[in-house]
Amino acid sequence: MKISSLTYISVGIGGMLGASLRYFISIWVQDTFSLFPWATFTVNLTGAFLLSFLLFLPITKEKVPPFILTGVTTGLLGAYTTFSTFTLEMIQLAETHLFISLSYMFFSIIGGLGCSFIGYKLARVIPKGGNRSW
Amino acid sequence: MVNIIYVAIGGFFGSILRFAISSAFKKHPFGTWLANISGSLLLAVLFKYYQLSMIDDWMWLIGGVGFCGAYTTFSTFSNEVLVYITTGYFKNAVIYVASSLLSTLLLVYIVLLV
Predict the structure, then answer these.
(1) Distance CA A22, CA A40 (A)
(2) Where are the alpha helices (DSSP H) in chain A?
(3) Quick check: A44 and A18 in contact, CB under 8 A?
């Protein structure tokens, strides 16, 4: 499968937006009121929901050009969420607050999966033609 | 406010590299697995140098927050686990989650320790 350079650019632009948005939220959601890394937790769960929702939504595959869809899903939502910060925060927390670190891991994995599942279910409720019969 | 430019530049290259790796593995979760592990390792190394003031703020913003943040992904990871579960590959889901967590945590721990 040959991937067009247009798709690469689209993913890159999506990545710029996603990373910037994550950075904004990390400043906005200051973790000062608790040790729990709320900023990363928030972006990872909301991103997991949105990605599964968009990937399982029938209208996106029919109406949205593939390079735009890849830019939004792989680029924007992929860069908006992060795995590296998640692991770094877990290790940092584990040194002093093992229980918070383990809770962070548990709720991120279970919560992320739950959010993906809700996104997937919600996408399948929306009918193909766009008629709101629900 | 110039900080956001640094983060965006890193995000541009990080997401393209992840996409290239994922495409090379024909969208198999192994691509995401590889990106998440190598990106977590790189972030830990950068963080260590940043803490020791061996790299500047702007380098951390481009390489750490921007590049590593965008190169690794949690949303695709979650979605891939969900697809494994919904298609009946429960064992693969468990192995995928466990191996991603164990290898990244071990690598980051070693980097921060030494």
Answers:
(1) 8
(2) 5-28, 38-56, 58-63, 66-70, 78-80, 84-96, 98-125
(3) no
Nearest to A78 among B43, B68, B73 (CB): B73
**DSSP state letter for B73:** -
Residue B65 falls in which region: left (phi positive, over 0), alpha (psi -120 to 50) or beta:
alpha
Partner B contacted by A24 (CB < 8 A): yes
Contact assignment for B15 to A11 by CB distance below 8 Å: yes
pLDDT in tens, A27-82: 988 766 678 999 999 999 999 999 999 999 988 888 899 999 999 999 999 999 99
- Nearest partner of A119 among B75, B100, B88, judged by Cα: B75
pLDDT at A1 over 80: no
Residue A21 in contact with partner chain B when CB distance is under 8 A = no
Residue A71: what pLDDT?
97
Question: What is the CB neighbour count within 10 angstroms for residue B14?
Answer: 33
Instruction: Please give the single-letter amino acid code of residue A28.
Output: W
Distance CA B79, CA A73 (A): 11
- Is the model's pTM score more than 0.90? yes
Q: Any chain B CB within 8 A of the CB of A54? A: no
pLDDT in tens, B47-90: 999 999 999 999 999 999 999 999 999 999 999 999 999 999 99
